[in-house]
Design a protein that fits this description.
The complex is a heterodimer.
Chain A: H1 3-32, H2 36-40, H3 54-62, H4 65-96, H5 102-111, H6 117-131, H7 137-141, H8 148-158, H9 163-171, H10 176-187, H11 189-205, H12 208-213, H13 222-232, H14 237-269
Helix pairs in contact in A: 1-14, 3-14, 4-8, 4-11, 9-10, 11-14, 13-14
Chain B: H1 27-61, H2 76-83, H3 85-116, H4 123-131, H5 138-149, H6 155-162, H7 170-173, H8 175-199, H9 204-212, H10 217-228, H11 230-245, H12 249-255, H13 266-275, H14 280-311
The chains are: A mainly alpha, B mainly alpha.
Chain lengths: 272, 312
């Protein structure tokens, strides 16, 4: 087999695989624009005759999607912000400081990566219940303020920054926090961008914990709100599809803004 | 200035510098240690409360009857688990699911990575297209496929009937195979990226030498690519088994664990026991058992990997 035929086969197979991943998503867009009649017809409608943009506003009338979106923005935003505040700080300490029990503590933090959410699910629920945090922003946000992966990522990124920079600042009389804020953090901008974006998107998509901790409709995040909506209104598939399209927006933005980097980023942050 | 593209690809092993002897720390060292602890304090408190306390608490709760306020039951919840047909069924289903998604992840991920590694034009577009599902919430993926696969309203059956072909009820006849397929649809792009990173570490000279020796494409794949990808394959399989054993949304959203209990994934089973039946004690015991299975799988896979590496 020549290299040429080999490449042709590779193109064909990759195109087929890409169509398999992309077409169902495009069909969901199509479904979100269909009339109820098109959606229920026995024949396959691949694209609606006239797109029903009104489906999107109907969605907001049928269920409080505005508050679902707001809740998701608040929760994913707060968690991403907290990661941006703490992960580089803790990563910096493990990269550049020497202190007793350093390795023990670092291993203890990394070991949390091996504790799956289902193990924490029941104890955290009980804890939130004791604190009176069920069905609240605190309950949705606080258990995820930091994680071992972000800290590990930042430590790996900060370690190669030359020690001389830090020593020079110390000689100049800068205090420790100034050194962190003025010298270390500015170097980390690209890593922080990746960390912030991915933390936001992963939290925006999180399903299990919001399902466990929220009880009222008004506290639901979009993944939970959308799932419950489709269970209660299972004949309104076109509206569920519209909700899915809305939910996909942050992912799409992530793809658009970081095309090239995010392929790398996924290998880094997807490990969680 | 470094860009994200220059970030390390995969975590490197943590190096543990050893302090040779315990000497008295200098004032500077002591000040450094104090600063370090001030900066670390919030994180240490956070991990203690939200990671280590829950482990202690779930061990404790797993020894209580029914709800956590109830009385001490010793190991009853654990021994009951082994005789409970529903728990055994959930475990069997989950194991099938995890093994199938792992094998699928390796075959499809490696296959696509090899194809995309041909230095094709437009490979970034292929990567992006294949990765999109991985960045999508399981809620969106689950609802989308439940709709597409719906026996009456789903587009797949409507196309089949338009073509005059018999319609199918995948979710009723092959529920586990169907959620395996949906899971692979969602995760294969990510597996492919990991294999691609592994492939890029294989020097071209190996392939050139094999070509000189007259090895064909399949032989080169079989004798060079597969063995040299062993560390990646191992990493992917550990990860796929771990995530497979913890799958939840597939059962909650797509199949509701059914028909009957045919797709009752273990975490879904725990969720129902804890938050529907309010049986925290038993649900906690099942969580601990699942965690032990995950740890066991991880250790076995890492051991296999070490033995393999010694052979090379």
């Amino acid at each position: 087999m020549t290299a040429r035929t080999y490449k042709t086969i590779a193109y064909v197979l990759l195109t087929v695989a890409s169509l398999i991943t992309v077409v169902p998503l495009l069909y969901t867009v199509s479904l979100s624009l269909q009339t109820e009649k098109e959606m229920l017809s026995a024949e396959s409608v691949l694209w609606p005759e006239s797109p029903q943009w009104g489906n999107y506003s109907t969605l907001f009338e049928e269920a409080p999607f505005g508050s679902f979106i707001l809740n998701s923005l608040v929760v994913a935003g707060a968690i991403a912000l907290s990661h941006l505040i703490f992960d580089p700080l803790v990563g910096y300490v493990f990269a550049k400081f020497d202190f007793p029990f350093k390795n023990t503590l670092f291993v203890a933090i990394l070991a949390t990566l091996m504790i799956p959410l289902f193990v924490r699910m029941i104890p955290l629920y009980v804890m939130m219940s004791d604190l009176g945090w069920l069905d609240s922003y605190q309950g949705l946000i606080v258990p995820f303020l930091m994680d071992g992966f972000g800290i590990f990522l930042m430590r790996q990124f900060i370690q190669p920054i030359p020690d001389d920079l830090i020593h020079a600042a110390r000689v100049d009389g800068a205090n420790e926090f100034t050194i962190y804020w003025r010298i270390i953090l500015p170097q980390c901008k690209p890593a922080l961008a990746v960390l912030g974006l991915f933390t936001f998107v992963f939290q925006w998509n999180e399903f299990l914990w919001p399902l466990v901790v929220t009880t009222s409709e008004r506290m639901r995040t979009i993944p939970v709100g959308l799932t419950q909506f489709s269970q209660e209104q299972f004949q309104l598939w076109h509206l569920t599809a519209a909700g899915s399209v809305i939910m996909f927006v942050p992912t799409a933005l992530l793809l658009i803004f970081s095309q090239r980097y995010f392929v790398r980023g996924i290998a880094l942050t997807g490990l969680k | 200035m470094a860009t994200p593209a220059e970030l390390p690809q995969l975590p490197e092993p943590v190096e543990l510098p050893k302090r040779t002897k315990r000497t008295k720390r200098s004032p500077i060292a002591r000040r450094q240690a104090r600063t370090a602890y001030v900066f670390l304090a919030p994180a240490l408190i956070f991990f203690a409360i939200f990671f280590y306390y829950p482990i202690a608490d779930i061990l404790n709760t797993s020894m209580l009857t029914g709800q956590r306020t109830d009385e001490f039951a010793g190991f009853d919840n654990y021994t009951n688990a082994f005789e409970d047909p529903q728990a055994r069924n959930a475990f069997k289903v989950t194991l099938q699911f995890a093994v199938a998604t792992t094998v699928g992840a390796i075959v499809l991920g490696m296959g696509l990575a090899v194809l995309i590694n041909q230095k094709l034009r437009g490979s970034l577009a292929f990567k992006l297209a294949l990765l999109v599902p991985y960045l999508t919430s399981i809620a969106v993926v689950g609802l989308m496929w439940r709709n597409i696969l719906d026996p009456e309203l789903g587009i797949l059956n409507r196309i089949l009937s338009d073509l005059g072909l018999p319609t199918q009820e995948w979710l009723n006849t092959h529920p586990v195979a169907t959620i395996v397929a949906v899971t692979l649809w969602m995760t294969t792009g990510y597996t492919m990226i990991l294999f691609l990173a592994g492939l890029q570490g294989i020097p071209d000279v190996y392939y050139e030498a094999a070509k000189v020796d007259g090895a064909n494409g399949w032989q080169r794949f079989r004798r060079i690519t597969v063995p040299l990808l062993t560390p990646t394959t191992l990493f992917v399989s550990v990860m796929a088994v771990i995530t497979g054993l913890q799958a939840f949304g597939q059962a909650y959203i797509i199949t509701r664990g059914g028909p009957g209990e045919a797709s009752d994934l273990f975490v879904f089973h725990i969720f129902e026991l804890a938050f529907r039946a309010r049986n925290f004690g038993y649900a906690s015991a099942l969580s601990v058992l699942l965690l032990l299975v995950i740890v066991a799988f991880t250790l076995v896979q890492l051991r296999i990997g070490r033995d393999r590496e010694v052979q090379h």
